[in-house]
Amino acid sequence: MKLFCLLLLSAASTAALHLDASGRREQPTLPSEALATEASPTEAKSRFAMLDDVRLLANGLLQLGQSLREFVHKTKAQINDIFQKLNIFDRSFYQLSVVTSEIKEEEEELKKTTSILKANNEEIRNLSLEINSKINNILQERTQLQSKVGSLEERLKGLSQSMLPADQLSEIITLKEVIEAQERTITNLLKAVKEQHDQLDHQKNKIKNLEDKVISFNSFQLTVDKAMDSDHSASDKFEYLQINSTGKETNLPVDCGDLFTRGETKSGVYAIKPNQSEPFYVHCEISSDQGLTVIQHRADSTVDFDQSWEMYEKGFGDLEKDFWLGLKKIHTISQLGTYILRIDVEDWKEEKHWAEYRFSMAGPSEDYALHVSHLAGDLPDAMTNLTGSRFSTKDKNNDSGCDADCGRNCTGGWWLSACSETNLNGKYFSLRAKGRSVRRKGIQWRPGAGPLYSLKTSKISLRASLATDGGN
Prior knowledge:
ten-stranded antiparallel sheet; Gamma Fibrinogen, Chain A, domain 1
């Protein structure tokens, strides 16, 4: 408000000066008046006062501008802090949604098990009721039989004393003994039935306790199995085989295509021996017309692909499920000749796509630099622009592919160049990733400036190039 008043005063003073000056120009000035005007100290003083006000106003405006700039910077910092907190909240919310989905799946399984247990308990209950009913019927029949036997005994006593001869009396006594034996048998049978009924009740309780233990054990076993699967088989399958460990190294195929040529028809894990290399295991995908050497496969989140440079050189995972074969082994295979790199992916709409590239790869001295040229496929080309790129991991970042200028945080090893967003070894999300910042860290395929593909599964394989293969 003070600045506004100062502006008004300055404008009024300036207008007054202009009016005074214009009035003097319209009237003829006498020499004596001119001398008086030139010698007037009051007018010179007022002009200097006006300049001071202008300076004061200018200083005020500068201070106001500086305050506004500081306020803007402070506001920007607060907005950035809010965005960071929102990103943290998004990540936490996503993790919570994944945990919630897992809990729902476990709850569904528990409901199914509970329904089965209820059916079993109902069946046991019906069986127990049926046994109780039969026992009651037997007891009633026993009572009726005892009463009849008692009445017969009384009659037999009277008859034996009056009219029955001795031989018939002995037969009656024998019959009585048989009836008593049958009664004892029925008593023993009832006792055995009662014991069996008690055993059934005890068995039912034991079954229920066992089922409760099985439910808790299954959840524990599932966790243990995941840990065992991720740690156990990986260490064995990705080691090089020792010479003479199988006795057949000299006759091993050089790749899965060679295995197919030898007549193998089933896909699976096989040992191969490329030239000048120790034997090692690979996963071969055998079809009716070719054999593919699979070097990467992603289908779920059981294997963590955010590994070190050493692990990406050696290989990791499970050759029957998700794995990375290893840069050293891939380079050894590529040295056999010209190879075709095939990429098969499936998105979250369950649509499948593929692409093929002519492929070669440099050795460890050049950080396994990639060289590809596109051949065919319905998948948009996102690899040609990576030609010449060196392989990078979280502990060895080549070509500055993951720097802050690109606005992305890389996960998993891949051939990175400039700000390319293609990475089939990124983090696996159990659900379809929402938000660009999240998809950037996932299994992604981006052709140049085109849309960013967030993928559900991926598979990379190699086959020897034929003379009939086309190329660019």
